[in-house]
Each structure stands twice: as structure tokens, then as C-alpha cells.
Amino acid sequence: MTRLIHDQFAKQYLKELLSSRGKVETSRDVTGEARQIDVFFVPFSEPPENATPLGLLDKIATTSCVFEPFRNAITRSEIRSCMGKLFDVCGEKEREARVEKRKITEDELPVLWLLTPTISETIRLEFNASLDPDNSLMGVYSLGVGLRTKIVAIHQLPNTQATLWLRVLGKGRVQREAISELRDLSDENQISSTVLELIYNLLTRLETSQELDREDRELIMELSPIYLQRLETATQKGVQQGLQQGVQQGVKQTKRIVIENLLRVRFGSIDDELSAIIEPLVELAVEEFTPLLVQLSREELLARFPN
Fold this sequence. Notes:
Blueprint: H1 2-18, E1 22-30, E2 35-43, H2 56-60, E3 65-69, H3 76-99, E4 111-116, H4 121-126, E5 130-131, E6 140-142, E7 149-153, H5 164-167, H6 172-185, H7 190-207, H8 214-245, H9 247-267, H10 272-276, H11 278-282, H12 286-295, H13 298-304
Helix pairs in contact: 1-7, 6-7, 6-8, 7-8, 7-9, 8-9, 9-12
């Protein structure tokens, strides 16, 4: 289902944005019933220097957070399930404090952030979700200080630079407009360029799906011409080098650029182990290495191309 594709994108996206600001875990196991937190974030003790401003997301990331992004409008059951996971984590923290014989303050416990495109007025009222006093933005709701749970209704957020990085996780028109804003920033903003690579990776995965809804089809139509233009630029760069170094070398360089980009998108950076498999991948045809890089895990890739 495409929902799983979008879920994976949301986890990678939040990890990319927040990794310079603290420790980020995705698919973190919690005690009790077998289940996982989508993204668990703990900020560094010192704020990062020269980091790209993330607006509202920066304000959220000043404390420990549990992020649960949703592709479709959140339901009552999903809210309760996510709050259960939050309470499990809070219980872990409190038990650790007891073992260490120290008191734990409320501020040390994480805040649950539910990221949903929309939320019905009925559900909002049933959970007593009111505008969050800490953020003063339409679309940001709090369930009460003691519950440590907040909801971001992404499609209600004002269309400003401060909300851009959260609007990328929206749906339909809201998401497409946010991606368009990111494209305008990409030439002068490194993290925007990296995020766009994640989005293009999302595109390649959606194109292979047989269960596309209207929003997914519109997203593909919006992104495909831009993605093809980027590939063409990479190809031209390789051809230009080929004129100087030989056409064959130019083609290899083009493939190497594409492979390195895909590895960075999937795994954040290229360490020595991943660097060692680039040359074997370059020897493959594009239609051979692309599905490998998109579908296989890090461990499967390393096993496929042992040193």
C-alpha cells in the first residue's frame, strides 16, 4: 500500500531534518504490546551552529519528542494508540529514574506530536484539543499539559516560511505547494536539496505501486518533469566529462553520481562500507542498480557486494 511508502518517507524526512539537532531513532520499540514509535527525538544539550532554520519544527525540537506522522486524517483509535506508546515511554523514563534514585521532572518526559493532514471538529472536541498556548498558531492543538500530547493539523497551518517543513508532510495541494517552495530554496540551501532527493526517492517508489490514489497520481505528475530534468543534468555533466576523458568514463561518472545520491538519500551519508560497493554498482546497468538501491536494506546491499 502507498500508505507504507509515505510512512517511510515521513520517518526519513524527519530524521534528515532533526539529526543535526539531536539523537533521532526511527521505528523505536516500546515495552508492553509489540509496537513501535515512528520517530523518537532527544535534542542535543547544545543547539547546532549554522543550522538551517526550521521554523515551527525548531520550536518543537527543543524538548524530547515522539513524532507520529499520518498520511490520512487521524482517527480516535490512532490517537489512543499513540498516546499508549507515549505513556509506555514515560513509564520507562520514570523506572530508569527510580533505579538511579533520582527524581524526574515533567520536562524530562517526551511530548507526543501527532502530525495529521486534517482532523475533524468532532474528534478535536471529543479529545478536548484546544489551540496550543505555546505556539499560538492555527492548526496546532494541545490535549492538556498532563497528557503531553499535541496535534498538528497540517492543512490548517498558515502558509508561511515557519510552517514550510511541516507542510511538506501534508497531502494533495498543500504538499505540492510546499515542495514547490522547497525547489525555490534548493539552489542556496543544502538541506532543501537533500530533502528534495528524499522526495524524488518517494516518487520512484510510488511509480512502481499499483495502488495509487488521486493525490499520489497528482504528485507524480507534478514531480516527474523536474526529476527527469535533474537526471538529464546529471547525464549532461557526465557527457561533458566524457568529451574530455572518453565517453565511457563519462557514462561511468554519470552512474556514480546517481548511485552516490541514492545512497545518501537512503542512508544519510556514505561511510567506508558503502563506499566500497559503489564501483561494483557502477558496472551494472541503470535498470539493474536502481531497484537494488531503492529496495534493499543496508545489510542486504553489503551482503550482495561483499568486499
